[in-house]
Amino acid sequence: MFMRNLISVVIMEVSAHAIALKKVQGINFELAIFTNCTQDHLDFFGTMQRYRDTKSGFFCQEYVKNAIVNIDDEYATRVIDACECPVITFSAEKNEADYTAKEIKFLPASVNYELVTNNNIGRVKISTPGIFSVYNSMAAGIAGISIGLDFHSVVTSLCEVPGVKGRVELVPCDKDFSIIIDYAHTPDEIENVCLMFNKIK
């Protein structure tokens, strides 16, 4: 007898390329997350305007049921305006967001913050340092909460996620400088990694 394993949840990163080439058209998304818009893939899109419009256009599709948007990004307003579905906002800078990160502490091998909503506060520790880890973990956590997971269980799970090999990976050394391994390969990514270490205390 043939048995089929049923998959109830699929999480995917949808690239702007995939959107432009209509590779995900027709897939129903319970949630779509917008984290940021940086200077990537201009070899394909030609201009930032086309790249940004492609990203925001994804959120106006009828098959996106809910959106989670980082309002710290300068292009967030355009994304929210494009949405034809309920929007949940998050921020590490603005109090008006539905979810905010407070008391952010940058450490050599981690970043700590408080995830704050109207009803709950949870202390999060992410084993990959940097502000991008704050935004990425917030987005993932909010997605889990939005589909019905318990807030505090989500916070606990975020704290248990190990660091990612090759992503701001600190190499132990006894020198007065830091050695890191990172797959940053664009000028914007390299600059962000270097600036990140200026914030570490």
Can you offer a commentary on this structure?
- This protein has 201 residues and is α/β, with parallel strands linked by helices.
- It has 7 helices and 8 strands; from the N terminus they run αβααβαββββααββα.
- α4 links the parallel β2 (67-70) and β3 (87-91).
- The chain is globular, with a radius of gyration of 18 Å.
- The model has no long low-confidence stretch (mean pLDDT 86).
Structure summary, number of beta strands? 8
Order of neighbouring strands in the sheet with most strands: 1-2-3-4-5-6
Helix content: 25-40%
Unreliable parts = none
What about the largest sheet?
Answer: 6 strands, mixed
Q: Based on helices, strands and strand pairing, what is the structural class?
A: alpha/beta
Radius of gyration (Å): 18 Å
In brief:
This protein is of the alpha/beta class. Helix content is 32%, strand content 20%.
